Every structure is written in structure tokens, then in C-alpha cells.
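Anyone up for a design puzzle?
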């Protein structure tokens, strides 16, 4: 809630300052001055709303909304007056005050309603149904190829065939686990290693994998089967179409109180995109688990396709 409120106010201040500024320096000065006053006002509004939570919970939804919007308007007016006094401006127009109050009320109403809708979507029933739907889409495309590989190895190398089937069983155990279960990054790396071990039997030296793992990242909480769909797509679109094969880099590293997970594969410059569904699935499950605390971005150039995920630790 705090992060959403502060980011929303900063975005509004950036836009408002830009509309009233002629130069970048003037815009930056106005934005900085306004932020110094507005951010404490937003935090004060959050403290007051949280303090009144017990009272508000006993009220009907329309009354709750009216109360928080009135508080939002009051906080916006106080911040606006403090800003005007700080900058020693002339007596401001009442219309300006009305506009500021309306903006504060609308911002408070938007934040409360968005949080209410998110709570409904992430309730036990809504979230469980959504996770079931998303996890049901994770069906490894390599099933039949893996079984064929195991069959071919039965006579040539029975022990290797047994290891392939054990790895496949472990992957499907994860795919069929309860959608509400969470995993750790260390466990997801182990599953990805099993998957890439199976694919190495298919592609041989055409598949080159570089693991750069930071042990300090292993306990990060992640959705089940976060990494496997990403490396599967890296193989499917970065290695399989190329006669000379390709490289897959998996890297984890700690960045303060966060963990960065990077998956990069080589691509042909003319190769069509094909990562969309897997990425959308991963992004949605990250959002359901971590909300705005997790971020996922993609980068592509003529030689590489990169997925970068930032997770809270």
C-alpha cells in the first residue's frame, strides 16, 4: 500500500510539474520542492487510515470510501498550503485549492479501490483458481522426446536411462504439486539442472550451459516451476533451430535485499520471437506471489535474448 501510494503521488507530481515548467531545470526544482512536502503528507494519510482501520472496518463500504477520500482531500490541502508557504507564494486561488483537494480525494479513492479489488482477486478462492489455471499451462513440451531418449538408452546405457526417467519424474512432481505451494530459488535451479541434463542427451555439444550461481540467493521465495519454463524456451528457440547449437546462461546474484535471476540464450538475428506465453505465465505468477516487489524484464539484440527477474529476498 505504501509503495503504491508514494509512487502514485510522485507520478502525479512529475506530470503536474512538467505541465507548469518551461525548462528541465525548472521542472526538476518544482518536482523536488513538491515531493518534499507531498510524500510526508501521503505517509501521514496512510498512518491515519491505518489508525482508523478498526473503526472503518465496522462501517459499510460506501462510508469507508467517503472517509478515506475526505482524509485524502485534507492531506492534499495541507501539503499544498505547506508548499505555498515554504515557497512564499502569493495567496493562492481558491480554485487551485479545490483542484488539489479533488486530486487528493480521487487519488485516495483510486488507491483504496485498487487495493480492495486486489484483495478480492487474491482471496483464497480467486488466487487458488488463478494459480491452478496458470500452473496447468506448464506442461513440458519435451515429454515425448524425453521418453524416446530413455527408450533408446535402455539397451545402450540402462543406468543413464534410469537417471533420465528419475529427472523427468521429479519435473512432473513439481508440475503436479499444489498451486499454493511456494518453492525456493535453490530448488528451482535444481529442477532446471535436471531439465537441461535431459536436453543435453538430445543435443550433445550443441547445447552449452553456463551456470553462474550465488549461494546467497538460494532461499529466495519463488513460484513453483519459475525457472524451468524459461530455460525450456531458451533451448527451444535458442538452441534447437540452430545447426551449430547455442549457449544458455543462468545467473543469480544478490543485490542488496533483492535477488537478480538472469536467463540468456543466443539467437539468430532473423529468428522469430516465441517466448511470449512462457514469459506472461511467469510474470503473472510472480505478480500473484510478490505483487510490485518483483519485476521481470526482457532484452533482445541481434545475438541474445535475455530475461531478467528481480525478486525480494
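Challenge accepted. My sequence:
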Amino acid at each position: 500500500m505504501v509503495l503504491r501510494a508514494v509512487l502514485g503521488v510522485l507520478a502525479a507530481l512529475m506530470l503536474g510539474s512538467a505541465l507548469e515548467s518551461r525548462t528541465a531545470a525548472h521542472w526538476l526544482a518544482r518536482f523536488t520542492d513538491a515531493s518534499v512536502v507531498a510524500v510526508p503528507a501521503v505517509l501521514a494519510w496512510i498512518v491515519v487510515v491505518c489508525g482508523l482501520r478498526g473503526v472503518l472496518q465496522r462501517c459499510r463500504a460506501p462510508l469507508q470510501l467517503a472517509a478515506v477520500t475526505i482524509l485524502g482531500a485534507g492531506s492534499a490541502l495541507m501539503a499544498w498550503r505547506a508548499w505555498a508557504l515554504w515557497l512564499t507564494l502569493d495567496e493562492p486561488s481558491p480554485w487551485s485549492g479545490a483542484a488539489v483537494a479533488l486530486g487528493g480525494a480521487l487519488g485516495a479513492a483510486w488507491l483504496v479501490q485498487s487495493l480492495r479489488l486486489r484483495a478480492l482477486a487474491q482471496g483464497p478462492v480467486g488466487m487458488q483458481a488463478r494459480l491452478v489455471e496458470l500452473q496447468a499451462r506448464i506442461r513440458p513440451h519435451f515429454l515425448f522426446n524425453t521418453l524416446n531418449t530413455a527408450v533408446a538408452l535402455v539397451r545402450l546405457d540402462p543406468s543413464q536411462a534410469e537417471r533420465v526417467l528419475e529427472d523427468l519424474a521429479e519435473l512432473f512432481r513439481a508440475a503436479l504439486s499444489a498451486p499454493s505451494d511456494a518453492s525456493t530459488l535453490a530448488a528451482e535451479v535444481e529442477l532446471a539442472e535436471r531439465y537441461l541434463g535431459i536436453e543435453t542427451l538430445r543435443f550433445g555439444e550443441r547445447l552449452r550451459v553456463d551456470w553462474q550461481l550465488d549461494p546467497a540467493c538460494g532461499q529466495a521465495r519463488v513460484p513453483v516451476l519459475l525457472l524451468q519454463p524459461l530455460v525450456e524456451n531458451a533451448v527451444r528457440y535458442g538452441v534447437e533451430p540452430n545447426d551449430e547449437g547455442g549457449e544458455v546462461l543462468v545467473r543469480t546474484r544478490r543485490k542488496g535485499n533483492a535477488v537478480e535471476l538472469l536467463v540468456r540464450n543466443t539467437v539468430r538475428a532473423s529468428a522469430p520471437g516465441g517466448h511470449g506465453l512462457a514469459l506472461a505465465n511467469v510474470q503473472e505468477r510472480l505478480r500473484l506471489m510478490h505483487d510490485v516487489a518483483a519485476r521481470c524484464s526482457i532484452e533482445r539484440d541481434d545475438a541474445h535474448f535475455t530475461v531478467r527477474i528481480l525478486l525480494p529476498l
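A detail worth pointing out: The two ends are 19 Å apart (CA to CA).
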